[in-house]
Amino acid sequence: MTTSTVPGTDHPEERGIVDLLVADRGEALISWVERVEGRELVVTAGQDRSQRRVRLEPGQRVELVWRGPTELRSLPAELVASEGGCWRLRPTGPAARGQRRAAVRAPLSLAVRATVGSTTLSGTTVDVSEGGFRAVFPGSPTGAESRRPGGDWQVGDVVDVVVELDTGQFGAKVEVIRRHQRTDDHHEVSARFVGLPERVEDRIRATVFAGLRDLRRRGLV
């Protein structure tokens, strides 16, 4: 940006992944920093969690959030132009410590085990973020009794899970917030983490960003 600014601290680094927070949207958008030009940043047009590009008008205020060397960082900016699938952003203030107001979600297949009493179900995530996951579990585990008639997951259930990351597994409690209709006997649910320590959130976020970088390298996002 200028000779006195520090990449990664005062602004996101080139080729880095950033969250874009827009005032009138309830979720973070995903974007990549293409290049830094003078006092402006050129980033890819933000994508929502369904990987659809979002359209914004010039003048729209956004907040960039990224992982700095030691903490989350944020930078307020204004969209000044849309250029061939990219947005040109001009900072409107200094960078500051970022807040965890939104969680970027990535389509990753991670092994997850859910335990209720003596029943354990082994499933796979469809997508995951530091806020929770969407996962598919078998309808009924072999040799295990259903925990309620039909073995259905219910919204509001709080269960213990173990999720496998590249850096090792972690255990947590999750609350089921949505059930998804399926044509087979499997259960597909969305769940949010309950009381997750910040160090575990950091591990999940690192896994999500690494997964997104790999998907982009392969041309899948």
Which secondary structure elements does this structure contain, and how are they paired or packed?
Blueprint: E1 17-22, E2 29-37, E3 40-44, E4 61-67, E5 72-83, E6 86-91, E7 96-97, E8 111-116, E9 119-129, E10 132-137, E11 158-165, E12 168-180, E13 187-194, H1 198-217
Antiparallel strand pairs: 1-2, 1-4, 2-3, 3-6, 4-5, 5-6, 5-7, 8-9, 8-11, 9-10, 10-13, 11-12, 12-13
What report would you give on this structure?
By secondary structure, this protein is mainly beta. The protein contains one helix and 13 strands, in the order E-E-E-E-E-E-E-E-E-E-E-E-E-H. The strands form two sheets. It has a six-stranded antiparallel beta barrel. A six-stranded antiparallel barrel has the order 8-9-10-13-12-11. A hairpin with a 6-residue loop joins strand 1 and strand 2. About 5% of the residues have low confidence. This is PilZ domain-containing protein. GO terms for molecular function: cyclic-di-GMP binding.
If you consult CATH, what is the topology of the largest domain?
Thrombin, subunit H
CATH evolutionary superfamily of the largest domain: predicted glycosyltransferase like domains
- Strand content range: 35-45%
Number of helices: 1
Looking across the biggest beta sheet, what order are the strands in? 1-2-3-6-5-4
Rg estimate, integer Å: 20 Å
Helix content: under 10%
Shape: elongated
Integer count of domains? 2
List unreliable stretches of 5+ residues: 141-151
CATH architecture annotation of the largest domain: Beta Barrel
Q: Total strand count, please?
A: 13
SSE succession = EEEEEEEEEEEEEH
What does the average pLDDT come to?
85
User: Which CATH first-tier class of the largest domain would you pick?
Assistant: Mainly Beta
N- to C-terminal separation? 27 Å
- In this structure, how is the largest beta sheet organized? 6 strands, antiparallel, barrel
GO molecular function, one term: cyclic-di-GMP binding
Domain PilZ: 99-209
Organism: Modestobacter marinus
Pfam families: PilZ
